[in-house]
Amino acid sequence: MKEFKKNLHYYYKTLFDYYENSFFTSIYRLGGIIIFPIFKYLNPNFITLISFFLGLLALFFTFSNYQLDLNFIMIFFIMSYFLDFTDGIVARHQKKTSFNGRFIDGLCDIFVGGILHIIFFLTLFREDSLLFQIFCLITITLHPMQHLVMDRFSALARWINDKNNNRKIKPYHRNDFLGKYTKLIYDIQHICIWAVFFKLINLKIIVEIFFLFSFLASILSISIYLFLSNKYFSTENNQEDNHDK
Q1: What superfamily in CATH does domain 2-233 come from?
Q2: Shortest CA distance to 91 belongs to which of 191, 10, 25?
Q3: Model confidence over 39-65: pLDDT tens digits?
């Protein structure tokens, strides 16, 4: 109980503050705080890998002979999202926060999100039109691409800041442009996951909404960073490359 109160006190200012976190970010973080005592002695990177393994299990059970219902499959993803926030709490508790941990965590997030997209698509693709199937495939492709664009922009921004002390380019900007709407798009996607879990609405409608907002999130993110790249990087001369022969 003491550790629960300590972690809750550390995060309470941002929990359910929509200017800081989306609703489901707060839900998963609160869940991570609650289950933290179970995992507090494990290596944080191992917890991250468990989260990734849950995504792989979901993929396995979706297309295995067991043929589990999709609402049951969602349990693996919900557990994965809770663990995604638990590893950071454990790392902070053990004083083992590292950039390697951030790298592994981010990479696993992309894989788990991609697996979720694939499961949604392959579960219902026979029921959708060819046009929507193509749309889903484009969305699945854009999901990792947006992270590639964001990370590439971030790396170059930090490199420019390191090379030129007079420039301080902010590595991440998406929330600056979309504000609460970024969080709303995230929340709608996770509402779809929980709606599938509880069988609240027609499955086909839920999946279509999920892909629509996933596509929107990717397009907005890629567009913003391409615009910022043109704005900030076009005037920056790479002196080292310019002098290369």
Answers
A1: CDP-alcohol phosphotransferase transmembrane (TM) domain (1.20.120.1760)
A2: 10
A3: 999 999 999 999 999 999 999 998 886
